């Protein structure tokens, strides 16, 4: 599994697929099949009788958020398209204000529409999964950013976001930034975002220690409860940049858009999250990534090869499932070789990043080389 994840994580955003229900197709003259991007794949592929084999139910936010939801969905589409499965996504009613009842209805609708497996990204899915899993014991549920809930038909998939955050914080300081920011989603209650942010602060602290300097950091969960862009969030970040913040880690769905707008206006920089977001704004210097699409592909493959999966799958540097996008970053003062050396130390366990999912306020962590400012 580790070798497969490593291979998939290295793939670019272009793949070769068999069409839904149509088998493989060759180019002119019997050449290799034409490459197809994620965006070229239909967002729903219905069977003749109107049922779907693979479903994804979002928790809150938009499907096409350029980050967490979208790249989880890309993994669903890629696996289904390549393996001739039908698929559909479900966004619960009320969008960013969706309730547990909304998610329960969406999951139930997916099951009733014939889903064999349902991918549910986001920690807010837990209550709905507790209600729906026992009612459909033959359906496989894959809980992305989730955990083992004891159900025989539920697999929790989580990531060591603290490692990706550490790499991003270390890179920022090594690049020369001394005034950093972190803007997090989930209001300080999302374990994945907490791990990202705490890792980011730890990485910045370690790099500052290595350089013999101290750095400043603004750190906030304000305006991020829905993981969405907003005028209030953009105004807050504009204030940060005007006060001297040089780079901000945008950790939460379309919150990225508010950070990008504020950074571009101030000629400042941002760090993307979950996926390589360099193509979304010139302000992006790097991104703290985890293998969302890849882990979905592996999990779906395991189900279709071996039947119902349960327990938990935790992925990190040891699986090559977190990291920074060295081919697209715009860092000038920290080299790929230096990054690889640091990554290998995390991968081997020589460097251990604290993964405390309750550390929503790293100012309490005793980081000697980071001063947290308002």
Tally the beta strands.
15
* Beta-strand content estimate: 15-25%
Give the radius of gyration. 21 Å
CATH hierarchy, class of the largest domain: Alpha Beta
User: Which CATH-level-2 architecture of the largest domain?
Assistant: 3-Layer(aba) Sandwich
- What's the number of domains? 2
**Secondary structure: helix percent:** 25-40%
Largest sheet geometry: 7 strands, mixed
Strand order of the main beta sheet, please? 14-12-11-10-8-9-15
**Outline:** globular
Helix count, per DSSP?
A: 10
What structural category characterises the helix and strand content? alpha/beta
Instruction: Find the CATH topology of the largest domain.
Output: Rossmann fold
How would you sum up this structure in a few lines?
It contains ten helices and 15 strands. It is an alpha/beta fold and 374 residues long. It has two domains: 2-156 and 292-319, Rossmann fold (3-Layer(aba) Sandwich); 161-290 and 321-372, 3-Layer(aba) Sandwich (Rossmann fold).
